[in-house]
Design goal:
Length: about 180
């Protein structure tokens, strides 16, 4: 019973770390990635659709993203969606595709992005602590229902805390590597 709780706890905590990594992928580092436009959606025949599902999105070099829609009629819609998304650049529409030119980041921008990364990692830690609380509640319920002893309760809660500590350490590790990536010029 306790092992099932541990496994469930690990699985949910792993999902929190995956969500944080997805959030991190939207942050700009020294080299621009197509993930910057992943959150931008366009109105495609009445359905809000991610840009990468209505055209090719490629990083041409360290500072340029090119978006080639599959239908020319989408050029204006994509351009407007990028402007509304406020990702820090204005789209350049040349009639066939849209290019996004990202200027090199200033040190102030880098510091600001590191702050955003820290906020994202803090959200992940909060999620992990909430998962710990749920796991501890399940362990306490087992003891209350007389399915485990008091000693098992203590061991179970200690094990949940060890799992939590290891995942918080993973969050810190991921954050510090992302910080290095962001601050690298």
């Amino acid at each position: 019973m306790l092992n099932a709780i541990y496994d469930d706890t690990k699985e949910h905590m792993e999902k929190s770390i995956d969500a944080m990594k997805r959030d991190f992928s939207t942050l700009r580092t020294g080299k621009v990635t197509t993930a910057v436009v992943d959150q931008v959606k366009v109105d495609y025949y009445g359905t809000m659709t991610p840009i990468n599902q209505v055209g090719n999105v490629i990083a041409m070099d360290a500072t340029t993203i090119s978006i080639t829609p599959w239908e020319k009629s989408l050029l204006g819609i994509i351009e407007k969606a990028i402007q509304n998304a406020n990702i820090g650049v204005n789209p350049n529409n040349d009639g066939d595709f849209i290019k996004l030119f990202f200027p090199p980041m200033t040190s102030e921008q880098r510091v600001e992005i590191v702050k955003q990364a820290k906020e994202m990692s803090e959200k992940a830690k909060i999620a992990i602590r909430n998962i710990r609380k749920d796991a501890n509640d399940k362990v306490k319920k087992l003891e209350k229902d007389k399915e485990i002893s008091e000693d098992d309760l203590k061991r179970g809660m200690d094990q949940v805390q060890k799992i939590t500590d290891s995942f918080v350490a993973k969050v810190e590790e991921t954050l510090s590597s992302k910080e290095v990536d962001i601050l690298k010029v």
